[in-house]
Amino acid sequence: MTTIDIDHTSRWFGNVVAVNDVTMTIGPGVTGLLGPNGAGKSTLINMMGGFLAPSTGTVTLDGEQIWRNESVYKKIGIVPEREAMYDFLTGREFVVANAELHGLGAREAGQALATVEMEYAQDRKIQTYSKGMRQRVKMASALVHNPSVLLLDEPFNGMDPRQRMQLMNLLRRMGAEGRTVLFSSHILEEVEQLASHIEVIVAGRHAASGDFRKIRRLMTDRPHRYLIRSSDDRALAAALIADPSTAGIEVDLKEGALRIQAVDFGRFTTLLPQVAQANGIRLLTVSPSDESLESVFSYLVAA
Amino acid sequence: MYNPTVARLTYRALLGRRRAAILFVLPALLIVISVAVRSFSGADDQVAADLLGSFALATMVPLIGVIAGTGAIGPEIDDGSIVYLLAKPVKRSTIIFTKLIVAIAVTMAFSAIPTLIAGFILNGNGQQIAIAYTVAALVASIAYAAVFLLLGTVTRHAVVFGLVYALVWESLFGNLVPGARTLSVQQWSLALAQKIGENDVISSDVGLPLAVVLLVGVTVAATWYAGQKLRTLKLAGEE
C-alpha cells in the first residue's frame, strides 16, 4: 500500500501559476489524471516524480518528502512523456542499464522486457524503434525494480490502437496487483477505459475527483449546445421545445439555423431524430457547438 | 562515489556523437604538424616548447576539455534523457563524480597522450619538454573537465561559454591583459610544466604553490557545485 499525498500544493513559473493549491491523494489502483493540454498535469507529475519542487505545499510518498530524496525511487517507476532516451543503446542495453542503477541485473531486465513484450526487438538500437516500441521500453525501464508506484505522463500519445490496448491491459494488471498507477491524459475516453479513479485538473486547479461515472455525469449533464439545420426549422423548434430535454431554442436568421440548448443529453439525442421523423422534417445539419474539451472542462470547473 | 553504469552510458554518449570527431581531429592535427616541423627544421627545443605551449596546451587541451566536460552531461540535460539517471536511488553527487571521472579520462586520453607523442616527435623529450607539457596537459584536463562539466549543468549554452572561456579568455585576454593570466587553467598547469622543464625553457605567470591551490580549489568547487545543481535540476517547464 503506497500512497502519494499532495497537500495544498502550488507551483508557479515566474508569473504563471501552473498548479494552484491542489490537494489530492493517489492510492493503489489505476488513477487517471485528466485535463486539457497545458492544465498542469505534467507539472503535477513532475512534482510527484521529484523533478520539480512545489512552490508551496508538500508532495509526499508514504509520508516521506519526494523532492531531493533519491531513496523514493526504490518505490517509484517513471515513464516520462519526453521521447529522448539513450538512442544509441539497444532496448536490452537500456533496460539493463536501468536495472543496474537499481542494483539489479540482466535477469530483472529480461523479465521487464518480457512483461512489455519487447523481447523480439530487444537487440535493435532504440533509434530504430517506433513510438509504441519506445513507450514499451520506457515502461520496461520503469518496471525493472518492481516499483509499487508507477507514474506515466501521457503514455498513450502517438500509440496505435493495438499498442494502446496492450499498454492499457498492462496498466490494468499493475493496478489489480495493488500498485499505485497514475497516468495523465487529455482524452476522456482513454481515462474512462482504464482508470477506476479520476482526478481532473483544469487551468492548474483540481476541478473534480471520483470514479468515472461521476465525472461522466458531470460532463454529460451540462447544457449541450447544438447547431441544427433542417427542412423546416420553425416546426422542428416548436416540436422540440415541448420536451423538457430542451431548455432553449434560438432561430438564427443570419445562419439559417437553430441554436438549441439541451439539458438532458441522453434524452435529447434520442428525441431529435424521432421528432424529425414524426413531423416529416429532414435534418440537414446537426453539429454540437461546444464539444471542445476545453468547454467540457471549463464546465466542470464551474460545477 | 563512482557508478560503473553511469560511466558506461557517459562514455558511449560522449564517443558516439558526431561532436566526438573533434576529439580525434585535433590530436591528429598536432601529430601531423609535429612531424612536419621536425622534418623541416629538425629537433629544436624552443620550437618544441612553442608548439606544445601554443597549440597543445593553449588550444587543444581546453577544446577537448569543452567537448568532454560539457558533452558528459549537457546533451542529456538538454534532451531530458537524464531523467533515467535521476529517477534512480543513486546519489546525485555520485552521478556528477562519475561523469567527472569520465570527462577527465577522455580529456587526458585525447590531449595528454598526443602531447607526449608530439613532444617526443619534436625533440625527443629534450630538456624534459615532452614530459613537462604532458604533465601540464594531465593536470589541466582535470580542472577543465570539472569547470566545463559544471557549465554543462548550469547552462544550455555550455559549449559556447566553454569556447569563449577557452579561446577568448585564456588566449586573447591572456595575451593582452597580464592579470587575466592569473585566472587561467593554462597558466596554472604551466607552473607545473615550468618546474619539470629544464633551463627555463617553459615559463608561467603563476607561482607553483598558488597554481596548485587554484587548480585543486577550482576542481573541487566546480564539482561540488555541479552536484548541488543536479540535486535541484528541474526537468519540467514545458507547460
Automatic annotation (TrEMBL), chain A:
Coiled-coil residue windows: none
Domain of life of the native organism: Bacteria
Q: Domain (ABC transporter): give its ranges.
A: 1-228
UniProt keywords, alphabetically: ATP-binding, Nucleotide-binding, Transport
Q: What InterPro entries does the entry give? A: AAA+_ATPase, ABC_transporter-like_ATP-bd, ABC_transporter-like_CS, P-loop_NTPase
- Pfam (any one): ABC_tran
Which PROSITE patterns does this entry report, sorted A to Z? ABC_TRANSPORTER_1, ABC_TRANSPORTER_2
Q: Does the keyword Ribonucleoprotein apply?
A: no
Extract the GO molecular function terms from the UniProt entry.
ATP binding
Q: Which SUPFAM superfamilies does the entry link to?
A: P-loop containing nucleoside triphosphate hydrolases (SSF52540)
The entry sums up its family as follows: Belongs to the ABC transporter superfamily.
Official protein name in the record = ABC transporter ATP-binding protein
UniProtKB/TrEMBL annotation, chain B:
**Species name:** Streptomyces violascens
Its name, as the record gives it, is ABC transporter permease
Q: Which residues form a coiled coil?
A: none
Membrane-crossing residue ranges in chain numbering? 20-40, 52-74, 95-122, 128-151, 158-177, 206-226
Family annotation (Pfam families): ABC2_membrane_2
Q: Which domain of life is it from?
A: Bacteria
Query: What are the protein's UniProt keywords?
Result: Membrane, Transmembrane, Transmembrane helix
Taxonomy of the source species: Bacteria, Bacillati, Actinomycetota, Actinomycetes, Kitasatosporales
